[in-house]
Structure to design on (313 residues):
């Protein structure tokens, strides 16, 4: 499986990083919506999280069951060291591709 | 009465009859469709209203009019308006109050039923949509957690928008979530293998 990160994978990893240690599916989606104004479906977020877990970029821990969730457990996600490295590399790659172009300041 | 004047009156009569036909047509459409969707027929209401006014004017000022027809036509049209925009009229207010009392009685009955049923105060999401999520979602812990997230969102939507809209949003989100996964599975597994997999899950193997 490729270690390259797609756009949604980057967003999800960054959201997990921001929400540390309370990142779970719905909160990740809300965080992405708040920061980028893009509303992804819950299914898309979970598919991406599943893929990232398979790559070893995040790890999960089980949370509490609540009445609001109809007694279904929450899964909290945390970034792993390989995930952090992959995210850094991915963002650095974008930065170096932008360098020298008209959009050079877009990431700052 | 000159020949010219008679001819002009006959023209007026024909115009009046045509307008009357348009009016009755609009009234019929309003009566049938008005109950289904208020906003869609707002234009028809305006047309009906204008034609009714012209009709009355023509009948009264040119020919003296047929009083029962005018009264009946105007009355039925007013009733239609009352049914469509009840809160714009004096009599409509009474109708609104009566309807509100009826709805309040119904709400009190429902509330009493809810209080009598333990655990029924938290609304449950649409069962079939939830079933689809369980059937077609991820198999591991992710599937369970995903359905939980859907339920959490549904509860928040219920508090914000009410049950009906929350149900619609739940369905929309379900289809939005499952359709891409469904297409991807058809592409990667083939339709037959995918149906086999869903059948296997359905019987719990």
């Amino acid at each position: 499986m490729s270690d390259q990160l797609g756009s949604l994978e980057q967003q999800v990893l960054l959201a997990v990083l921001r929400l540390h240690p309370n990142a779970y599916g719905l909160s990740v989606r809300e965080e992405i919506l708040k920061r980028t104004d893009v509303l992804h479906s819950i299914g898309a977020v979970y598919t991406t999280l599943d893929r990232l877990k398979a790559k070893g970029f995040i790890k999960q821990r089980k949370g509490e069951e609540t009445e609001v969730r109809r007694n279904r457990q929450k899964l909290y996600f945390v970034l792993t060291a390989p995930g952090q490295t992959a995210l850094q590399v991915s963002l650095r790659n974008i930065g170096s591709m932008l360098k020298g172009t008209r959009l050079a300041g877009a990431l700052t | 009465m000159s020949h010219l004047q008679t001819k002009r009156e006959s023209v007026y009569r024909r115009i009046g009859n045509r307008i009357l036909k348009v009016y009755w047509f609009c009234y019929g459409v309003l009566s049938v469709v008005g109950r289904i969707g208020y906003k869609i027929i707002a234009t028809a209401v305006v047309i009906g209203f204008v034609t009714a006014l012209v009709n009355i004017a023509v009948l009264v000022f040119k020919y003296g009019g047929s009083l029962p027809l005018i009264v009946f036509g105007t009355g039925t049209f007013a009733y239609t308006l009352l049914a469509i925009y009840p809160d714009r009229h004096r009599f409509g207010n009474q109708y609104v109050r009566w309807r509100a009392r009826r709805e309040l009685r119904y709400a009190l009955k429902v509330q009493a039923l809810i209080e009598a049923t333990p655990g029924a105060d938290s609304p449950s999401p649409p069962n079939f949509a939830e079933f689809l999520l369980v059937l077609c979602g991820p198999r591991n812990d992710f599937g369970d957690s995903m359905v939980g997230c859907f339920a959490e969102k549904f509860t928040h939507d219920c508090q914000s928008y009410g049950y009906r809209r929350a149900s619609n949003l739940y369905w929309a989100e379900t289809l939005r979530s499952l359709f891409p996964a469904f297409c991807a599975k058809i592409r990667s597994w083939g339709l037959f293998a995918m149906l086999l997999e869903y059948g296997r899950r359905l019987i719990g193997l």
